[in-house]
Structure formats: structure tokens, C-alpha cells
Amino acid sequence: MKSIAELNASKVPLVIIDGKLNALDKVVLFPEKVEQAKKIINKSGLPKKKH
Amino acid sequence: MKLPAYQLKSSETLTSYEFVSEGKKGFIQKRIQFSLINKDEVYNLAFGDKKPATGDIDDLAISDNGDREKVLTTILSAVYAFTEEKPNAWIFAVGSTPSRTRLYQIGIGKYYNDLTEEFEIFGQLNGEWETFETGKNYTPFLAKRR
User: Fold this and answer.
1) Closest Cα partner for B36 from A37, A21, A8, A43?
2) Does position B137 have pLDDT exceeding 60, yes or no?
3) Chain B from 33 to 52: CB within 8 A of any A CB
4) Residue B53 and residue A11: Cα distance in Å, rounded?
5) Do residues B9 and B17 make contact, with C-beta atoms less than 8 angstroms apart?
6) Residue B78 confidence (pLDDT) above 90
7) Among B89, B145, B41, B49, residue whose Cα is nearest residue A51
8) Residue from A7, A33, A51 whose CB has the most chain B CBs within 10 Å, to mutate
9) Residue B5 burial (CB count, 10 A)
10) Chain B residues with beta carbon closer than 8 angstroms to that of A32
11) Is B29's Cβ below 8 Å from some Cβ in A?
12) Average pLDDT score, chain B
């Protein structure tokens, strides 16, 4: 198996941009879960980064 | 980190992704999306199976396609790609069920050493964030590029 460094250096992209998927950006998947996540973040805040 | 991962197709913003799981049950289309939660650049990581009949995304489906590891590394690849584009983003993740949250936990733990080279990872325990440690049962998780 290849390491990340090897994959990053390879010419085969792991991600292909497909303009057909742009429409998906406009529809939020599981909005109720996004709302729940928002409540959690609003309640507990964000952790302090060390770096 | 040892891959392989499935090849991802992405929208131009790198916020919506699709890939196809190939396994013992056949081909299953999967979707990943990063949705903005708040102004602090916190994004929810959503993941699920695309229902062939309706096109709806089901985050409770149990694919049992025999490629769990590859699917997991593919999700991590999407996190890498997305945060390459948005290095200040926080990625919020929680499983759709306790067992899926546990799966995320196992996945993070398995690749922890590699992931922490580029990410700070936190888990929430009893409502408080702490730096992720293997063996603890967190829900949810947060990750941010170093």
C-alpha cells in the first residue's frame, strides 16, 4: 500500500472536481443534525487549540 | 496512514463529495458533505448512503459491503481535501448511532499518530472538550488543522 506522501506525490488525484455536484452544495444534508451540532457548540464552545 | 481509499468526486467548493463503495453487496453510492454550523468556521461532517430509488441520503443504512476500512479512509480523505481548501475550519463529527460514533472513534484511534501530525483532534466527554485519547468514549468529535 502507498503512504500518504506517495499518494500526494502521485499524479492520480484522489479527488476529482465534478461540476455536476455543485448543486449538492445548496442542499444541506440532515439539517436537524446541523442544528443539533450548533446547539452543542453554542453550549460548550470550542476547545482551545494548542498550536 | 495506509490507504487505499475510493476516488472521490467533489463539487468545486470541496464541500460535497460522492464516491462508490464496491464490495460483496455490489456498488453503493455514498455522499459526504461539510455544512457550515456557525461563523467560527465550524462544519458538520455528514455521511450517508444514496438510496438508488429516491436519491435520498440515508445515514442509518447498514451497507455491510465488506469495505468499512476503505470507506473510513475515504471519509478521512475528504476531510483532508476540505481542510486543505479551508485550513481554519473545525470539523464536527458524530455518528448517526452510538455504534457509528464508536466506529469513528475506532477509526480515529487507528490512524491517530498520522492524523495528529496534521490535525488537532478533540472529543467531548461529559459536555467538556478534551484532547482525543484512544480508549475513551467520546461524542462528538472535533478536528482542526494544525
Assistant:
1) A37
2) yes
3) 33, 35, 37-38, 40, 42, 44, 46, 48
4) 35
5) yes
6) yes
7) B145
8) A33
9) 21
10) none
11) no
12) 90
- Is the pLDDT at A11 greater than 70, yes or no? no
Which chain A residues are Cβ-neighbours of B38 within 8 angstroms?
Answer: 38, 41-42
A5 in reach of chain B (CB within 8 A): no
This prediction has a pTM of 0.88
On whether any CB of chain A is under 8 Å from the CB of B73, the answer is: no
Residues of A in contact with B130 (CB under 8 A): 47
Q: Which chain A residue is nearest to residue B44, measuring alpha carbons?
A: A34
| Contact criterion met (CB below 8 Å) for B32 and B75 | yes
